[in-house]
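Task 17 of the worksheet. Students: predict the tertiary structure of the chain below and write it out as structure tokens. Keep your answer in the requested format; marks are given for formatting as well as content.
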Amino acid sequence: MSLRSFIGKQWIDVIDWVEPADGILAYRYPMQDREIQNGGQLTVRDSQLALFVNEGKIADQFSPGLYTLTTNTLPILTYLKNWDKAFQSPFKSDVYYFSTRMQTDQHWGTPNPITVRDKEFGAVRLRAFGIYSYHVADPKVFYQKISGTRDQYMVSDLEGQLRDTIIGTLANTFAQSNVPFLDMAANQTQLAQQAADLLKPGFTNLGLALDTFVVDNLSMPDELQKMLDQRISMNMIGDMNKYTQFQVAQSMPIAAANEGSGGAGLGAGLGVGMGMAQTMMSSMKTATSGAEAAPAAAVPAAGAKFCVDCGNPMPSAGKFCPSCGKPQQ
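Model answer:
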């Protein structure tokens, strides 16, 4: 090393790191043209871990605390460097900080519905959404498999990998749960726990720990949801005969009021009322005796009218009733 190079080097007495923003998982301390002084101070704060990497090999790991860097506090690095216990010269090593804070409010969701078997509906397609949280638990594994020698590794860099892992696991969770779709809403906590149990080994393999996993919502695609809503409506109606009678009774005064005024309106109202009454009687007979219901009297189409004398329907343009022959107003 030339004298200029020696003078140009900077000696590091204090090594520490304060996270400048959320979402940082790993950070490499800047070591360009810098060497660590023997006896320098290393600060590792709560929610942090630090790794010393020498010539590409992981040496020592430090948990939260304040350390004076000597051969006593760097046993593996001392062994790799073949130092004796009284080394005095500065040394070169890469220092990586890892945030062990819980990374909260991480969202997951199924971009496409998952098809699963259901006891009631056969096969259904489900959409699911929720949140999860995790933290770096093993910095050595995380460094070797994920972050590597990058200056900085962010939560966003890992988001796609974790989300796809979650979605792939959910299909197995739903298939193994044997919970009907209509009961899933009441068992979301149980399903989330089952999914978490399946996901944890995969997180551990990356040097992470899955802290929480929540299923916020389970739903069907819109077209299937409409069919389900129709089925629920039919079940709520119950007895169709009684429902028909109720609907007819409710519509009678409305139909009579909207057919016009005067004698023609009265005849129209009576005609509609008679037709509806026959419909009601037929429905009641079917409900009580099971006999075949009599056909309901035909209700005239829009634009037709009723005879002011006999009340039978007749063409709107007719001047005489085809049933009784009476002239019309």
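Marker's comment: The radius of gyration is 40 Å. Residues 205 and 255 are 71 Å apart (CA to CA).
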